[in-house]
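Q: what sequence does this backbone want?
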């Protein structure tokens, strides 16, 4: 499916944010390991979250979907696995990282694999940590990368985690820690990225009855024994998905109102609103609805985006429409996402006339330049496709190929734009 976007504005958008992908993944796992039954409400039903749900079923978790609600009969941390189970997680890096530690709770070996791109995404930091805690995880093809043979036990103990590639290495350990043989003390090594997602992990664990003791930002302690408790759980709205509509208002002028967002959310992508405000937008909040208004006159900014990686591409598209330069840093780990997103940003903007440069320090600088239409191939990356749509509505004449790849995180994205009269 190809989608062509024409210049629009001013806009007047009113939508409800889809459920958070990050919260949905983690809630599925906590409920699957819990004692008792859970019902998750307003879950995100996307390609990635369905992969996590399907993998949990392969590990012995019984669950059933009913539109945006899912009922899960928890296992109490006792997983029933084949001999061996082969779990194909496709392109879902979140599923692979979070479930690698869960698979260690099985009594039999589990093979975890994925798409060709997945086999290029490093997991050494996670595997090293798990093997120091009782795992006997082996690389089946290339050292440091999936596929993996997950075997051994999760003893617990003290571990240092290299999270310079992804904070999900630490989140994976934390989510399974309630079922370790002894307390698990986790220490993040310097250079950890996407720290805000650890806050999401801790928030979900607490909601399912497991408190995490913290000392500063780098030290975590989880005591085993009690485990998660089944419960009713409402998944909060997703700031990264909402960011596309806030960005459209910023570049096209007008207003975007998005409901079902928690004003006090720990989601790092909430910082996107601060960035837009610094660029000249007006941001206001009423209950669970956030409004962004803009006259389209934007000023460039400088920002550390290490804690909000999923909105980097979107903010770069907004910056390309600003009247002064912008510089974003703390983003070098984007090369390990569904695609090399540093390259995707450069390629997208250069094809459309943008003035963009990536420096050796991992930063990106964007300067004002006349933009024009063109064709963008997102290379299967949902966030490349949706961020290109933002720029398409500001510039016009931009076609996004393979537009259906947005189903990975936001299946309704194009339908919402259509209902709002934007495509």
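A:
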């Amino acid at each position: 499916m190809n989608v062509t976007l024409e210049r629009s504005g001013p806009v007047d958008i009113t939508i409800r944010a889809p459920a958070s992908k990050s919260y949905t993944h983690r809630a599925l796992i906590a409920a699957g390991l819990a004692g008792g039954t859970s019902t998750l409400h307003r879950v995100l039903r996307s390609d990635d979250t369905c992969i996590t749900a399907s993998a949990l079923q392969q590990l012995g978790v019984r669950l059933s979907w009913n539109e945006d609600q899912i009922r899960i009969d928890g296992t109490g941390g006792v997983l029933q696995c084949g001999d061996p189970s082969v779990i194909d997680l496709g392109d879902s890096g979140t599923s692979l990282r979070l479930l690698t530690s869960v698979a260690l709770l099985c009594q039999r070996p589990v093979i975890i694999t994925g798409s060709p791109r997945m086999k290029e995404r490093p997991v050494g930091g996670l595997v090293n940590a798990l093997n120091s805690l009782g795992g006997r995880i082996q690389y089946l093809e290339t050292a440091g990368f999936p596929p993996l043979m997950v075997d051994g036990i999760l003893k617990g103990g003290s571990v240092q985690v290299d999270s310079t590639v992804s904070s999900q290495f630490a989140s994976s350990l934390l989510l399974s820690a309630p079922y370790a043989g002894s307390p698990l003390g986790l220490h993040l090594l310097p250079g950890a990225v996407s720290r805000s997602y650890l806050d999401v992990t801790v928030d979900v664990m607490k909601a399912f009855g497991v408190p995490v003791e913290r000392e500063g930002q780098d030290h975590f302690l989880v005591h085993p024994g009690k485990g998660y408790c089944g419960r009713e759980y409402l998944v909060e709205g997703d700031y990264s998905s909402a960011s596309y509509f806030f960005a459209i208002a910023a570049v096209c002028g007008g207003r975007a109102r998005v409901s079902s967002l928690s004003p006090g959310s720990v989601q790092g992508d909430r910082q996107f609103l601060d960035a837009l405000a610094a660029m000249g937008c007006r941001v206001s909040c009423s209950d669970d609805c956030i409004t962004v208004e803009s006259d389209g006159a934007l000023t460039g900014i400088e920002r550390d985006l290490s804690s909000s990686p999923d909105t980097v591409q979107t903010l770069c598209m907004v910056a390309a429409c600003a009247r002064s330069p912008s510089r974003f840093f703390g983003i070098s780990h984007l090369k390990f996402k569904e695609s090399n997103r540093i390259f995707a940003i450069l390629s997208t903007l250069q094809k459309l006339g943008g003035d963009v440069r990536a420096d050796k320090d991992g930063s990106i600088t964007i300067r004002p330049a006349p933009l024009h239409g063109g064709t963008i191939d997102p290379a299967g990356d949902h966030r490349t496709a949706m961020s290109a749509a933002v720029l398409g509505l500001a510039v016009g004449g931009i076609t996004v190929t393979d537009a259906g790849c947005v189903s990975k995180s936001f299946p309704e994205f194009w339908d919402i734009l259509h209902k709002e009269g934007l495509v």
